[in-house]
Specification:
A hairpin with a 2-residue loop joins strand 36 and strand 37. By secondary structure, this protein is mainly beta. It contains six helices and 53 strands. The radius of gyration is 32 Å and the shape is globular. The chain folds into two domains: 10-49, no CATH class; 52-399 and 472-513 and 613-656 and 684-787 and 848-1004, Maltoporin, Chain A. Helix 5 packs across helix 6.
Length: 1005
């Protein structure tokens, strides 16, 4: 049985007094003198430790006293969490790794189970998350959080949904801290990347403010707490990318140095290579109000409201080369990857993009706790919460993203010596010359009809190609009621307590996607004549991506671009008064070589509905658990035996917008004609009995052994339950895709086993080792089936296109997509820009149809090792942990069309050293996560995030008893992130964000 550690030992008192953070509170002990006369109570000292040390000791006590395996992080004091980002704080816990978005912790992976396998609660409540089930920790500021607990083993009294872990975020309550208390803080934030912005819309220093106020009245019977925060963040993201490693393309007429040693002969070719940079502004607002009333000692009522808003604005530019599989010169390595490629007649383009999204979360909750009798406690908790993600304002319209493509448009098929070529890309980013942190390099020349060659194209040859806009609106609502009871056995016996309860959760998620379609303004023809040369600004990316081993010193580093606002205005002026059918380009004309008139809004009104879906899920739950204590062979034993029953029903509906025809609109781009929306529905239901058992044994006074077993479930992604099928975007000529939902998907089911040993050998110090194993059934797999649809014929492989290819081959002209497109129209005697419709006798188009099914069983297992040590009264301390995870759920890099693997599985490690006394508090924290599978690309190839490490530092100076000044440094060494597909040489993306520095002050009253 647990015996609390007495921190009022001489050593503990010496440490606390040395740190200068002891609070002396009267306590009294009754005694007698030598004659037996009762003496006045003696006043003792209660030592209260604060700061980093107090937070670690509190977390250690939670770990030691809990049933099952529970880790925690607690606030160092009101309004001060160890890390400014909750996800980055959680990564310090053994077994917890994080995914990063925009260089900041976003979602968590626990014991190799990715974000969708972990349930995040706010004060014990299931929170909605627009866009899925994976809670984004970016939504919540850390200042109002008092503790975060990570339950790694299943418990009957916890809502279901977490196989990896259930994480509960606890916010402050006024009656827990009686009296008047408050904290206000402010900081200035500097991102090293923001000073590199050439747009001028980023601030090098942005503000953050936070405050929390709490007070109690009426002898502690009534309390109020208000907290809020406002944060601005400006930063730049730089990236290199290679998109769409296409398998088994054509190499007609190309020169290939083929070293492929694969038995199946499969090889992969890149679609494009490029560099990009984005200026990002984020604003986050958080607020919470809590009212508590305890009319008697037996009743406490809590009413709380929580609000958060996250607004993200992003202006992006990118330049790149688009290759075509035919007519290339390429080198293919032993594993079937193109590592060098050169091609005449490809595309060089610049992308100008803007994103603007707003995410709002709010929650209203009521909790009633009633101590009905000395032995029976009853609770009621209810809340109604919502989460909404929507587009913001872009160019006067409500959109989530929009972009324009510009480039050299000098009609490359009009003269074989004119146009773009040959671009060259070196993709062998793992070669000895690049080292392990390289990015692809590209070079290019522009040929002109007079035979001259230039390293950059001329402003007179630059025009617009096309634009497009998207809007996504996602709403997720949760209504939840939880009734709980706890009966305490007043008589001594094996069963000390019985807990029981009922839960009702209704969750509704609605998604609507809208898309403008391609809005062409020249494509690869002669739109340059409608753009004044002074509209273009010369740029240079020579210093870009300097954090990579071969970045920062590019050749051919000049490009031309324009602002997003200027591009929008210019695009709106290109059009004609001779509109064609709106199924191509709503409101746009067919002849771009002779425009007249002025268009209205470029987006031409509301975007076309690209499909909607609504999923409603209702869960009824019952649970009971017995808490037992006793002895076995003289060893104190505690056990919790529980059983939970979950009954889930699901209904889904949506509007499906099927394609009825494919139109070839130019180059390698297609457009769908679509039918009117069709209503479709689906449903599913399931029920599960979920047992759990936690046993801990005090092997010695300070040594505890644990064993846990539980069965847990995690529900499939909301989006996968939709009954609709979606014809995705504008398909490439070799890449047509359809996705279909599956309302009958079952939850993942996991049998979990844990065995651990913990030694609490000194105040604030412990060492632990734990082994875990999970057997997970009903793993979801994505299946891709190639199929055709009646009536959807393919003009790209039709008779007219094949005739054009034969003519071009006979004439010695490259059979590029643009050349074939123009020749078809030339043969038909129509303008070269005319969209090409499929004929009824053309072959049916072949689609990759992707859906999700339950099919696999996976096993994973691993070790968690942790140590925490306080170096006596020196003020120094360390915390270190490592997690080693393995299993039969890894992806096989060499297998084609692999159906199953578990994303997120990786080893991780942390090391933290700190020092504090009554004047300063400092901490240096290192985090490392090994390479891990992050998912699959559109061709079923595994995608990997390379290993990543980060070093953070913070320091606080206690200027007065109530005023402190602090400094924080995040990602001091400015680490970069890299991802690749299948093999390391199939580079996918590299991101660079730089470091972040904060300086601020906090005042407590």
């Amino acid at each position: 049985m647990y015996k609390p550690t007495d921190y009022r030992t001489p050593l503990a008192q010496a440490i606390a007094l040395a740190l200068g953070v002891a609070t002396l509170t009267p306590a009294f002990a009754q005694g007698t003198d030598a004659q037996g006369t009762e003496e006045p109570a003696a006043e003792l000292e209660e030592i209260v430790v604060t700061g980093i040390r107090a937070s670690l000791i509190s977390a250690m006590d939670i770990r030691r006293e809990s049933s099952g395996v529970v880790d925690a992080i607690t606030a160092e004091e009101m309004g001060k969490f160890p890390d400014q980002n909750l996800a980055e704080a959680l990564q310090r816990i053994p077994g917890v790794s994080i995914d990063r978005f925009n260089g900041e912790g976003s979602r968590i992976t626990v014991r190799g189970m990715g974000p969708e396998f972990n349930l995040v609660l706010l004060n014990g409540r299931t929170m909605p998350t627009a866009g899925g089930r994976s809670f984004d920790f970016n939504d919540i500021a850390s200042e109002g959080v008092s503790a975060v607990k990570v339950f790694k083993t299943g418990r009957a009294d916890l809502p279901t949904g977490g196989i990896g872990a259930t994480v509960n975020i606890e916010t402050a309550r006024p009656l827990d801290n009686p009296g008047l208390q408050g904290v206000i803080s402010g900081k200035a934030v500097h991102e090293t990347s923001s000073q590199d912005s050439d747009v001028g819309n980023l601030s090098e220093v942005t503000p953050e403010f936070a405050g929390i106020f709490s007070n109690t009245f009426a002898d502690g019977r009534f309390g109020i707490l208000l907290s809020g925060s406002y944060q601005e963040r400006d930063n730049r993201e730089e990236n290199a990318s290679v998109d769409n490693w296409q398998p088994n393309g054509q190499l007609n007429g190309g020169i290939v140095n083929d070293n492929n040693q694969r038995e199946d002969g499969t090889w992969w070719h890149p679609q494009n290579v490029g560099y990009g940079w984005s200026d990002i502004s984020r604003t986050r607002i958080n607020g919470q109000a809590v009212l508590q009333w305890a009319p008697t000692d037996r009743v406490t009522a809590t009413l709380d409201y929580t609000y958060s808003e996250l607004e993200l604005e992003k202006d992006s530019n990118s330049v790149g080369i688009w290759f075509q599989n035919p007519n290339v010169e390429a080198t293919i390595n032993e594993r079937g990857t193109v590592t060098q490629v050169s091609q005449a007649g490809g595309d060089f383009s610049t992308n100008i993009a803007r994103d603007h999204t707003i995410k709002e979360n709010d929650s209203l909750g009521l909790n009633l706790a009633w101590q009905a009798t000395d032995d029976l406690k009853l609770t009621l908790d209810a809340h109604s919460s919502s989460s909404e993600l929507r587009g913001g304002d872009i160019g006067g319209e409500t959109l989530s993203s929009a972009n324009f493509i510009i480039g050299n448009t000098s009609c490359p098929w009009c003269d074989p010596n004119a146009g773009f070529g040959p671009p060259t890309a070196d993709l062998n980013v793992k070669s000895a010359s690049y080292g392990s942190g390289g990015i692809p390099t590209m070079s290019y020349d522009f040929k002109y009809p007079d035979g001259s060659i230039n390293a950059e194209y001329r402003p007179s040859d630059i025009g617009s190609l096309f634009g497009q806009a998207f809007n996504t609106q996602v709403e997720n609502d949760v209504d939840q009621l939880q009734l709980g009871g706890s009966w305490k056995n007043a008589d001594e016996g094996a069963i000390s307590r019985i807990d029981f309860g009922y839960g009702y959760t209704n969750q509704e998620s609605a998604t609507q996607n809208a898309y403008s379609g391609l809005l062409p303004a020249g494509f690869w023809l002669t739109s340059a004549q409608y753009w004044a040369d002074d509209k273009w600004n010369r740029g240079n990316y020579r210093g870009l991506l300097s954090g990579f081993s071969n970045g920062g010193g590019f050749s051919n580093a000049n490009f031309f671009t324009t602002s997003f606002g200027n591009a929008l205005s210019q695009f709106e002026t290109i059009g004609t008064n001779d509109p064609i059918s709106s199924v191509y380009w709503p409101g746009w004309g067919a002849d771009y070589q002779d425009p007249s008139g002025t268009r209205g809004r470029f987006w031409s009104g509301p975007l076309s509905n690209n499909g909607t879906s609504v999923v409603e899920e209702t869960i009824h739950s019952l649970y009971t658990q017995m808490v037992m204590s006793g002895e076995f062979n003289g060893f104190p034993v505690n056990a919790v035996l529980g059983l939970r029953y979950d009954d889930t029903s699901m209904e889904s509906s949506g509007q499906e917008v099927p394609a009825t025809a494919i139109v070839w609109v130019g180059g390698n781009e297609f457009q769908y004609e679509k039918a009117d929306p069709t209503n479709v529905t689906g449903d599913g239901n399931n029920e599960f009995w979920l047992p759990s058992l936690d046993v801990d044994v005090d092997v010695m006074d300070d040594v505890k052994g644990r064993f846990s077993y539980s069965r847990s479930i995690a529900r499939p992604p909301i989006g996968a339950l939709s009954p609709t099928r979606t014809f995705e975007g504008n398909p490439n000529v070799r890449n047509r895709k359809v996705t279909a939902g599956n309302p009958e998907l079952l939850p993942y089911v996991s049998d979990n086993f844990d065995l651990s040993l913990e030694w609490y050998y000194a105040p604030g110090s412990y060492v632990s080792a734990g082994y875990f194993r999970k057997k997970v059934d009903n793993f979801l797999i994505s299946t891709i089936v190639q199929r055709t649809f009646d009536g959807l014929t393919d003009p790209y492989v039709g008779a007219a296109a094949e005739q054009a290819r034969a003519q071009l081959t006979a004439e010695g002209i490259p059979t590029t997509d643009q050349n074939v497109f123009a020749r078809v129209n030339q043969n038909l005697g129509v303008p070269l820009t005319t969209p090409i419709r499929a004929e009824p006798d053309d072959p049916l188009a072949v689609f990759d149809v992707t859906t999700t099914t339950n099919a696999e069983i996976g096993n994973l297992y691993g070790w968690e090792l942790a140590v925490q040590h306080m170096f006596g009264d020196t003020g120094f301390g360390i915390q270190a942990n490592a997690t080693i995870v393995s299993g039969d759920v890894d992806a096989n890099r060499n297998v084609i069309n692999q159906s199953f693997a578990l994303p997120g599985l990786s080893d991780s490690a942390n090391f933290t050293v700190f020092y504090e006394n009554h004047v300063v508090s400092t901490r240096l924290a290192y985090n490392w996560r090994d390479e891990f599978l992050s998912g699959f690309d559109q061709y079923g190839s595994p995608v990997y995030n390379e290993s990543y490490q980060q070093l953070d530092f913070n320091a606080t100076w206690f200027a007065t008893e109530d005023l402190s000044v602090f400094f924080e440094a995040i990602n001091i060494t400015e680490e970069v992130q890299r991802t690749y597909v299948r093999y390391e040489e199939q580079f996918l993306r590299g991101n660079q964000y730089g470091a972040r520095y904060n300086i601020g002050a906090r005042y407590r009253f």
